């Protein structure tokens, strides 16, 4: 007992004589204890049987995967195998990096990998008022209802019925390119035109409305907000998703911006829904997905579930179309051989006066179809597909993957898998002429793959048919060194969506008189 009193007396004396150091020790000791306890928790949470890189205390592998995470994972797979684990904060994640492994995990075990994990920034902050998109929703009965409604709205007959809408919007894109580029005399930054095309396809298909100009304030608002929200869906850009203590910061700018974007998105989504309901009440509406769902007596969805479908259409359209076309234009400018081959194939089907081609041509031009598939393969918009979480235990190569495990499909690694593709990092459309049925992973795999892939493929096919039919794509003489490498040419390596750096380009009409006449004829009809 005397020893304890003596020790307390010594501590008291030291604290009295060295108050600053005492305060410092009082702060450091809990921190050290927290770090030690946290490292024990991190070590205990690792999944037995799966190797992976050792990360740093607290943050795990986050620092190593901040930029070009999909490529970092692909490089690690050469060392650790096609399926390995990383730790993002305290959360162990299995990363799937080969076509064979992806099939075994996401197709053969689709029943066990059909859910999504919940991440704090996107699910608890951004989506607190409007619910989740179909793609980001955990598995539930509500999700089953929404996916069923989306599936019937996006099946092959439904997609065919939307072709007049796709026809109109792609004509408008060609017209914008013709006029903004002064008939090919002026180089243009095509991004706003591509964004308006993508957005109008989503707005018209889902709500039966459209934006008439890139100068419309609604266009600027939606594209800005959706770009921010895409970043909040990033699997590597939101540290507070994996390190909960960061959420306690009272000056958390990240969460503040997320709440602001949520509020701004609510305004335009609610306005679009209210306007459609008003037009439906007055029987003055165009057929569209949202109206079809509302009018279907067998589809009984709550307002939040209806909003989920709306959000899915806006986010999905902007991601895929905008990204693919933004990469394709500089690539085609730097590869006149591909333009020549595609143009020859188009002219074999349509005469020069049919410059806008037939919108009902269901992907019969083999070379252009191969071009689209090769773009989807090498310029995968979401290189790390939206993450999954296992809903039950299952096995991969006799190793147990426990319920609740987060899984990343590295679509970039699978799309460049050397076991599947010769020269996988070379852009070569002919590979899809030789082997048309080879799977690509751009739309995901298994039970949670993108429901809109049929529509996306039809949109991209008609778009490139008309682009290459109407224009010769040339580089701006001041900007002729496009970096079309999907790794080094990316504008933001930390973003979920892999968009290229900004550029200007010439879209020169192959026959200005024929194109102008075709556009005038389509406008008057």
List the helices and strands and how they pair.
Layout: H1 2-17, H2 19-45, H3 69-80, E1 83-88, E2 91-96, H4 99-107, H5 120-126, H6 141-153, H7 156-161, H8 163-180, H9 191-207, H10 217-232, H11 253-281, H12 289-295, H13 303-334, H14 336-349, H15 366-378, E3 388-389, E4 394-396, E5 399-401, E6 406-409, H16 411-415, H17 431-434, H18 453-470, E7 471-475, E8 505-509, H19 512-524
Parallel strand pairs: 2-6
Antiparallel strand pairs: 1-2, 3-6, 4-5, 7-8
Helix pairs in contact: 1-2, 5-11, 6-13, 8-9, 8-18, 9-13, 10-11, 14-15
What are the salient characteristics of this protein?
alpha+beta; Cytochrome p450; globular
Order of helices and strands: HHHEEHHHHHHHHHHHHEEEEHHHEEH
| CATH third-tier fold name | Cytochrome p450
Q: Regarding CATH, which class?
A: Mainly Alpha
Largest sheet: 4 strands, mixed
General shape: globular
* Distinct helical segment count: 19
Rg from C-alpha positions? 26 Å
Average pLDDT reading: 86
Low-confidence parts, pLDDT < 50 over ≥5 residues? none
Q: In order across it, which strands form the biggest sheet?
A: 1-2-6-3
What structural class is derived from the secondary structure elements? alpha+beta
Q: Give me the CATH superfamily.
A: Cytochrome P450
Distance between the termini: 100 Å
CATH architecture: Orthogonal Bundle
**Which percent bin holds the helix content?**
40-55%
Amount of beta strand:
5-15%
